[in-house]
Amino acid sequence: LNDTDDIITLTAAYTEVDNSLRTPIMYDLNNTAYYVDPAGTTRLNNLTITGTCTGCNTGSSASGWTDDGAVVRLTTASDKVGIGTTSPAGKLTVSQTNSSISATTSHLLLENPSGAQTTQYFTFGGTQKGSIRVDSSGNLVFNAASGNVYFDNDFGPTTINFRAVSGVALSMMSNGNVGVGTTSPAYKLDVAGDIRASGAIMGGNHITHTQWYGATNNYRGYIKLITPIVHNESNMFSIHIMGYGYAHGSDAIDIRCGGYAYSASTLISTDCHTEGTDLPVEIGTETRSGRKVVVIRIGTPTTNWYYPHFSAEYVGWIKKNPSDFVWTVGETSPAQT
Q1: Under a CB-based contact definition with an 8 Å cutoff, are residues 81 and 92 in contact?
Q2: Do 252 and 221 reside in the same domain of the chain?
Q3: What pTM, to 2 d.p., does this model score?
């Protein structure tokens, strides 16, 4: 008994590791606690402690992990973790050679309890930035909580490929070319196969293709293409109309009209050429919705139309929206004023 420190050495009690290392167990009467060699340093390997370990030092030969209770962490913050490798290159390196995909061969398995939501969220700096979701139908969804979703190939002359069962379906080259059905697109958009558009096609250099107009009935009178070209907007243009009607000896209609909506006056230098139809065609101006615009008229007030179908292509100095071109059928007046 040490009267000064009130510490008792239990000579009959000791810890033993592998039958080679013994250290006395001491009891502190003041703090009612047991100590292992409190006056010196004892190195113990493979020591299991039940209860709270106060002031424990794992030492350099320990596992490298520290259990703080609610947090298990690397003791040295600069250390790296390797799974399947003894030489991790990053903070966490996972290495595995596998030839198939399954829960047991995956490099990384993120799992929710059975019946739980199958969304895995990713946070950076404690803030949710996005998620990867695999739903019950097998859909894989990438979701950005804010900002955009990017697939980048900025680090070299590489290609981003989207594969289907039959092979690569879409390729995006580092030079900006995109290929559909081809892995070597030579143009900004290179499609290997047929192309179908349910709406209008609007090209560059102020080329506009109007939507296909298909009448569902019979009509009598003019067919008119009402354009968004204002009579004095300083716009030189050409319009190509293609279509057919069942009322004439030659059903195919191919019409080309052009002119100059001159800013100093009005529509000038107009001309129309027709192929495949004997119907009269004229270009002029009409007042529509308070604006004096260019209109192309086909037929006469007594022309009979049976399910006519038309489309048009516009080329001009001023870019036009396809939806601003309007077809009308059955009007009998030469012009709306």
Answers
A1: yes
A2: yes
A3: 0.50
